[in-house]
Amino acid sequence: MARVTAPTRAAAYPTGFWVLWWGTLINRVGEFVVPLLGFYLTAHAHLGVTQVSVILAMLGLGRFVSEGLSGPLTDRRGPAFTMIVALTGGAVMILALSFAQGFWWTAAGVLGFSLLSALYKPAASTAVAELTQGPQRTRAYNLLYWAINVGAATAPLLGGWLAGRSLRLLFWLDAATMAAYALLLTLLYPRTPRAAPQGDARTRRLLPRDALLWQFCLASLLFGLTYQSYKVLAVVFAQQGFSAAQYGQVLAVNGALVVLLGLPLGHLIARSGHPRWQALGAALLGAGFLGHAVAHTLWAHMVAVAVWTVGEIIAYGISKTIISELGPPAQRGTYIGLVGSMAGLATLLAPLLGGALLQSLGAGRMWVVIAGLALLAALLLLALEGRVQTRLARAAGTATG
């Protein structure tokens, strides 16, 4: 059998996917503002801790609202339209935010940016689902996930260097990369006519009456509440006497493992595409955060991060594939957007929940409770497994019929 070469594998993906991939990489490498926003608000805007916390919470609030609305918009106007609106609007809001002064204007700017830019994610996930099928779909999601994390690992380093020259430059360059991606989509992304909505009002409602979807949303929320609690790790590190540099070293384990293992693990999972992979990912996520409860050395925390990072990698691609096939094709964006909004809600709630648990229970018990949420997600996903497989088999039969 002839060996499959890299160019052949690359050619197996449609042109539209590579437009998404390169655009994502460009945009993520230039995502300077969000990772450094807390520093900017504290050091440059001179806002207090409570004010900064509220402003950062606007990112989660905007994502929760916007991702739920993005799905129906994508179903009606197509992923390209929604992504271009999100990127163009986000670029404009980033520029406006660079001139915002005072707490209220800054909070409004951050919320506006989040509401517009968060339209992008469900549309991008829908685009991948429309461009691919079968095991290739899971591999495509993981390729995109890899590009996201390469950018996430690069942007804070490059942004920190640029911030030493001009903080406002970060806003302008971030806006420029978003605009460049929007232009790339406008010029190169293939357009396909959208079919007219079919069915009665019940099948086109904003919130579908689908028990399996909402149970899947609950599992996603539980998973997200655990994952987003990594933000509380910085507080625990400070309490345990670790330095900021040591905290950075521990989090670097996450980025390094995603870059190193994201593609091979994603391709392995794509071979079977079994829903049980997601339950395994949730269980490993919980086990990793449980490790923080007993970790008191830097190496022990690194091991814990490594465990939950593997869980994150395993769950990511297969969950995207499952939700893209869970509902009817005409409502694919709606389903993806509703599940995505759970991640936004988790982004908003996790720091608040973690802070309350840390104050009332202490670090060790806090991690036990947080890990328990992911383990509950794993159990729920296992309970849903049979119905999910039946739904996926039906979708595959419809696609080939």
From TrEMBL:
The keyword Nucleus does not apply. Residues 16-389 form the Major facilitator superfamily (MFS) profile domain. It is a multi-pass membrane protein. PROSITE patterns: MFS (PS50850). It comes from the Bacteria. It is found in: Cell membrane. The chain crosses the membrane at residues 37-59, 80-97, 103-122, 143-163, 169-190, 211-230, 250-270, 277-299, 305-323, 335-358, 364-384. InterPro entries: MFS (IPR011701), MFS_dom (IPR020846), MFS_trans_sf (IPR036259), MFS_Transporters (IPR050171). This is MFS transporter.
